[in-house]
Structure formats: structure tokens, C-alpha cells
Design a protein that fits this description.
200 residues
Length: 200
């Protein structure tokens, strides 16, 4: 264990709150590790740990909060002339809508492992938001040096969107899930854009 190799870690773990915090962090990571590193439960003899709805919901909520904060900031800072949604909670609505839409599609397509699938959808959005945040920092740096970034702002968003599509498709292939879910994910995104961006 980490505490046996690093005495300072062992020392701080004696405090109940710190021990409790790291125990919860371990559970958070452990019960969602098949989402962070996708695997197929159909092709492996064991797919431990077993399902835990509490930690999956916590994982999805964590992703939703991060996505809302970073994407909302990017839209406000770099796409304000096109964005017509609410930067405070707008992306949370789209995020929840995406999960509900894809859950219904899972039922219609007969995808039984929607428990893991919703986790994958959440993580793809989370990773996409981190990438968008990185691009946002780069654009702000370029703007600081008076470099024109008007064309780069929507271009960077498009790059992130394309990467999310490819990562979503790759995850479904690894997890042995219905490939059509990638295209319904795309359809939902196209459906909500008129409510988020100026279309003229």
C-alpha cells in the first residue's frame, strides 16, 4: 500500500477525515475504472467491480459540473457572438438531455449495458471540455499578443467536437456496444445546436 512506502502518507491517513476522503476517492475511481479505461464485459470472464449506482451517479454529476463550467466559460469568452444559450446552466441542460436521449435510444436499440454507456457518454463530454479549456487558454494567450483569433475560436470548438465523435465511436467498439449509438449521439448534438447557436 501507499502508506507502507511513504511514511508521511501513513501519518496523514491517521486523521479520520483524510482517511475517509481517500476511501471515498478510491471508491469513486474503482467503481468507474471500466469507464476511464473501457473494456468489454461481454468478452471477459470477470467484470468486477459490480455495479454501484451511487458512484456512477456521482461520476456523471462530477462530469456534468466540470463540463458546464468549462464549456460555459468558452462559449462566453470565445463564442459569445454566436451563442444564444444560458452560459450559467445551459450546457447542463444539454448534458442531461443527451443522457436521457441516449438512454431512450439504448432501450429502443436493445443495448442492455446502458449503465456503462451513460458513463462513457459523460466521460467523453468531460474529456472534450478539458480539451476545450486547453484551447481556450491558448486562444486567450494569442489574444493577449494581439493575434486575431476570430476564425480559430469556432475552429477549435469544431476540432473538439470531431474528436469527441471519434472517441465515442472508439469506446463503443472496445466496449462491444451498438455502433449506432454514435450516430444517435451525433443526431442529438445537431438537434440542439439551433437552441444554442445563431443559425443565420
Amino acid at each position: 500500500m501507499l502508506g507502507t512506502n511513504f511514511w508521511i502518507v501513513s501519518y496523514f491517513l491517521k486523521f479520520k477525515f483524510i482517511h475517509w476522503f481517500f476511501e471515498q476517492l478510491y471508491n469513486f475511481i474503482s467503481y468507474n475504472r471500466k469507464i476511464v479505461i473501457p473494456v468489454s464485459c461481454n468478452k471477459t470472464a470477470s467484470c468486477n467491480p459490480s455495479r454501484n449506482w451511487f458512484w456512477r451517479i456521482v461520476f456523471i454529476l462530477f462530469c456534468a459540473v466540470v463540463v458546464n463550467l468549462i464549456v460555459g466559460h468558452y462559449f462566453t469568452r470565445h463564442l459569445s457572438s454566436f451563442f444564444i444559450g444560458n452560459p450559467v446552466y445551459g450546457d447542463s441542460i444539454y448534458f442531461i438531455g443527451q443522457l436521457l436521449f441516449q438512454w431512450i435510444v439504448c432501450l429502443l436499440l436493445g443495448e442492455r449495458n446502458w449503465y456503462d454507456y451513460l458513463g462513457h457518454v459523460s466521460l467523453v463530454s468531460f474529456l472534450g471540455s478539458l480539451m476545450l479549456g486547453f484551447f481556450g487558454l491558448g486562444l486567450s494567450l494569442l489574444a493577449y499578443f494581439h493575434i486575431q483569433i476570430q476564425l480559430l475560436q469556432p475552429f477549435c470548438y469544431g476540432m473538439v467536437y470531431a474528436w469527441m465523435f471519434l472517441d465515442h465511436r472508439k469506446r463503443l467498439k472496445i466496449a462491444d456496444m451498438d455502433w449506432r449509438l454514435t450516430y444517435t449521439w451525433l443526431i442529438y448534438r445537431l438537434m440542439i445546436y439551433p437552441f444554442a447557436f445563431i443559425t443565420i
